[in-house]
TrEMBL record:
Enzyme Commission code(s) on record: 4.2.1.17
Protein name in UniProt: enoyl-CoA hydratase
Molecular functions (GO terms): enoyl-CoA hydratase activity
Region annotated Disordered, chain positions: 242-262
Keywords: Lipid metabolism, Lyase
Reactions that this protein is recorded to catalyse: a (3S)-3-hydroxyacyl-CoA = a (2E)-enoyl-CoA + H2O; a 4-saturated-(3S)-3-hydroxyacyl-CoA = a (3E)-enoyl-CoA + H2O
Residues passing through the membrane, by range: none
Coiled-coil regions listed in the entry: none
GO BP annotation list: fatty acid beta-oxidation
Length: 262
């Protein structure tokens, strides 16, 4: 029986799944209930071997996600905040640890936890309306959804420090220049382009793509020799798969591969 959700939705088109942040009346402000659903939804997608790429998008016209729901937190005790913390970590970790490639389709505000969701994806497609940032220090906290770790890996220490210490918002031209996004598209085109990119990825060997992602992620923070060993393990896991046999056969027979995905 397929899971039902209130604050997110999952759409499937062939081998591409779209995880939609669906709390538009609050510009997808992340509440405890929404965090729980994101954790459940990402677990569902991770277990689905038919999904080869995931797009993380928004049902709000004005925002991708504005971060934590500060209205909910306004009445929190310290104990309430600690009870919420595991659910937030599970939500961000659920996106970050999806085994297939992930693409954030960003428009409008992607602030705080919203930008951290985008950073948790492999690629970020953003339209001309996008405004990104990690403003947590302006409200007395720090990024806690992976922002301090993911941003420095994306743009380097000094640029990450500038953005996190000031808490400033960054519009699309600067975001592109700093490398905060990967593809800049016209207003209203973020979801369309992200889905097209996901479909192109999904045409390739699912075993190959998943193992390539594994090598990229695990090899990023080790020395070169260790990284090459990680790559070799991922290569072996792919080279002796059904996908490799089908890919070689399809190339020689001049046809599109029918990937077994095993």
């Amino acid at each position: 029986m397929e899971a039902t959700y209130e604050f997110v939705s999952i759409r499937r088109d062939g081998h591409v799944a779209e995880l939609v942040l669906d709390r538009p009346e609050a510009h997808n402000a992340l509440s405890t209930a929404m965090a729980k659903e994101i954790a459940r939804a990402t677990a569902e997608l991770a277990a689905d071997r038919g999904v080869r790429a995931v797009v993380l998008s928004s049902a709000s016209e004005k925002a991708f996600c504005v971060g934590a729901d500060l209205k909910e937190r306004n009445s929190f005790t310290d104990a309430d905040l600690m009870r919420q913390r595991p659910h937030f970590r599970a939500a961000f970790g659920g996106v970050l640890n999806l085994p297939m490639p992930t693409i954030a389709a960003v428009h409008g505000y992607a602030l705080g936890g919203g930008f951290e969701f985008a950073l948790s994806c492999d690629l970020i497609v953003a339209d001309e309306t996008a405004v990104v940032g990690l403003p947590e220090v302006t409200v007395g906290v720090i990024p806690g959804g992976g922002g301090t770790q993911l941003l420095v890996r994306r743009v380097g220490y000094s640029r990450a420090a500038d953005l996190i210490f000031t808490g400033r918002r960054v519009e699309i031209a600067e975001a592109e220049r700093l490398g905060l996004i990967d593809r800049r598209v016209p207003a209203g085109e973020d979801r369309k382009v992200a889905l097209e990119l996901a479909a192109r990825i999904a045409d390739n060997s699912p075993v190959g793509v998943r193992n390539a992602k594994r090598a990229l992620r695990y090899g990023a923070d080790v020395d070169l020799a260790a990284g090459l060993d990680i790559e070799d393990g991922a290569w072996r896991a792919t080279a002796f798969s059904g996908d490799r046999k089908e890919g070689v056969a399809a190339f020689n027979e001049k046809r599109k591969p029918d990937w077994p995905g095993e």
